[in-house]
Amino acid sequence: MQITTLTIVLLLLASIGYRLGRGRALTMGRSLHSLPSYHGYYVALWCGVPAVLVLASWLALEPQIIRQFLVDALPDQLRALSPERMSLVINEVRNVARGYATPSSEAVAIGARHYQTLQQTGFAAMSVLCLGLAIAGLAWARSRIAPDLRARNQVEKTVTVFLIACSTVAIFTTIGIVLSLLFEALRFFHSVSLLDFLFGTKWSPQMAMRSDQVGSSGAFGAVPLFAGTLLISGIAMAVAVPLGLLSAIYMSEYANPRFRSVVKPLLEVLAGIPTVVYGFFAVITVAPFIRDLGHLMGIPVAAESAASAGLVMGIMIIPFVSSLSDDVITAVPQSLREGAYGLGATKSEAIKQVVLPAALPGIVGGVLLAVSRAIGETMIVVMAAGLSANLTANPFAAVTTVTVQIVTLLVGDTEFDSPKTLAAFALGLVLFCVTLCLNIFALSIVNKYREKYD
Fold it and tell me: Which one is predicted more confidently, 83 or 237?
């Protein structure tokens, strides 16, 4: 709450700086190098940026600073503890100071009070520094406003630096994700052969209690997981592609604008529904319906099946296919349609023989993006398809996917020295490579299409 209040105050000061800078520029006549609004942004940036940098630095360094002061203030018998025990004591002190726990000793209670004092003192000092910098920056920038001040250049340079910093953070975040997966996966492959992992047909990562069990030393063949992922994704795409493509054709070629303006947002609402809601729908409605239907037809259907998860997942990803397909079909030049009509083609013939072939690259790109979304889905599979790693092509059997096993392996007490836990990183690396290749392929097709018609 204190940080939020300080942030709001800094934003108010920046807005005041904008008004003061713009007002001062307006009083100088028409001989300004930059527009008055740029002078306002110039003052606002000098008011807000230094204070925000100090605030961000404090938030990043505060835990270590307070920890060091807290350790120095602890009694000698506590400071002599090992680093692991010291971390436990510090965590207990923090929990007591925040009201989450009761102190286990008088030393912890004293440390909690000292922790609160350090937090309050540090925040007060940081707030005074931030507000002082904001006011000083506002006054200095306003005093610099003059007709020859190149405010626009400096504001645009600042915005450029900010955009570069944001893109750099995104790039380094991606690199960090890849490296974290890669290093842990390499540790896993030191214990389990890469060939056994990629081509093995038994998946039982749990360590058994008896040596005669299949998983006594762990069975890490991921083929059942890959097969289950492909089976559920295939069922989902069999639902999403026809429905999404046909709805896109209708909305772009047949529907009137008023109907389209209402139906398209309603269709895209499907993409905003939480996946856990789809999971409940699959468990409560779709799975019993498929089981009862199979019973009537004499087909054995498991309580948790790939069909129920795939059908619901297909409904979920319909907007991914329909929205992009609708956009690319609408982007096909009207001259192609008029040429087809001029040659005597009917509307349906023009769509089948001219519009869809012209929009095919974009449609394929949308389908591949939907495939990536289906492969990465977890919650629906957990609730509707089960956790059984069965190597089967039967859509009425219980199967599992790569993402579900990643969640299963990392739930509960985990130690990152056993192959069981490290297998999650190997699965994540494989999933990352597959979805990355699909996304690159899809984007390359879409970019080729845009270069052709933009």
Answer: 237
